[in-house]
Amino acid sequence: MEFKKISVIMAIYNEKEEYLKKAIESILNQTYENFEFIIILDNPLNSNAKNTVLNYKKKDERIIFLENDNNIGLAESLNNGIGIASGEYIARMDSDDISVKTRFQKQIEYLSNNPDVDLLFSWTRFIDEKDGYVDDFRPSNKYCSNLKKYFFEKDLFVHPTLMAKSQVIKNLMYNPNFKYSQDLDLWIRCITKNLNFSIFEETLLEYRVVTNSLDYHIFKQKKGSKYTFKVFSNNMPNYYTNYYFIKRYISYLLKLIFLNCIPNKILMQVLKLKKRLNKIFSN
After folding, report:
1. Which helix (H) or strand (E) holds 21?
2. What's this model's pTM, rounded to 2 decimal places?
3. Using CA atoms, how far apart are residues 184 and 26, in angstroms rounded to an integer?
4. Contacting residues for 30 by C-beta, under 8 A, at least 6 apart
5. Contact assessment for residue 163 and residue 200, using Cβ atoms and an 8 Å cutoff
6. Are 191 and 221 in contact (CB under 8 A)?
7. Domain parsing of the chain, residue ranges
8. Which of 26, 28, 137, 181 has its CA 20 to 30 A from that of 234?
9. pLDDT in single tens digits along all 283 residues of the chain
10. How does 135-164 read in b/e, with b if 16+ C-beta sit within 10 Å?
11. What is the distance, to the nearest Å, from the Cα of residue 25 to the centroid of all Cα atoms in its chain?
12. Distance CA 10, CA 128 (A)
């Protein structure tokens, strides 16, 4: 196996210090050590996060710290990190998630054995605010054989599990016009170019989700639906004859209409009912 260099890209905004430390340490403790860790602070007012990163940087020279003069958003922050990346591969990381310590080693081995793969993802475990188990996400790699169908039928990829060839990401970059769903847009553009995707069928990341705040959940649903619909509209010229794309496009349109027409109080009751039903049927 060749010990190729990885550029790990992680942006910070306002995450809890506890989560940030766990995220950073999960990268620095990787069994595969040939990487640079590019951390971008997108909130110049967050002095605690800055001090936390700088303290780690004093101990580990693999950390490269960038600080934006003002809040420019996730997509542009990631692009700034990608712009200075010197590794042959780019890996994503979010500042409240936890990478399994063998993540990079296993991803590099897979990519070395499968040089035709351009973008590699993995299975994911969802955890709550206290690191408790929520759910497992285990899509089959077989769906990558026909993404112009299955990508628009199923949820397949978790963004921070990504490891990809640097040149692929540098050539396409994230679209800064999308405050949310910038990853979805990038995957669609990669699929349009017939790039090769693969899913490593093992859990390599713990992805943190907020489970308690219904208000926050509704806010994310509304914002996410708006930008997801915008992403699909933006990519429509390449997919207007694709049945699966159009079907998903219509479903997002209906969801967007529903979320914006129904008052938040009613949406909260619907979500509470859904949670109760899920609890009943999962027992």
Report:
1. helix 17-28
2. 0.90
3. 25
4. 99, 101, 102, 103, 104, 105
5. no
6. no
7. 6-208, 214-282
8. 137
9. 568 999 999 999 999 999 999 999 999 999 999 999 999 999 999 999 999 999 999 999 999 999 999 999 999 999 999 999 999 999 999 999 999 999 999 999 999 999 999 999 999 999 999 999 999 999 999 999 999 999 999 999 999 999 999 999 999 999 999 988 999 999 999 999 999 999 999 999 999 987 666 555 666 677 778 889 999 999 999 999 999 999 999 998 998 888 777 777 776 676 666 666 556 555 5
10. eebebeeebbeebeebbbeeebbbbbbbbb
11. 19
12. 20
Instruction: In whole angstroms, give the CA distance from residue 147 to residue 37.
Output: 31
Biggest CA–CA distance in the chain, Å, is 56
Instruction: State which fold the 6-208 domain adopts.
Output: Spore Coat Polysaccharide Biosynthesis Protein SpsA; Chain A (3.90.550)
Indicate the burial class of 103 (C-beta count within 10 angstroms; 0-12, 13-18, 19 or more).
Answer: buried
**Tokens 């997801």 sit at which residue?**
228
Q: In angstroms, how far is CA 146 from the centroid of its own chain?
A: 21
Helix (H, G, I), strand (E, B) or coil at 25: helix
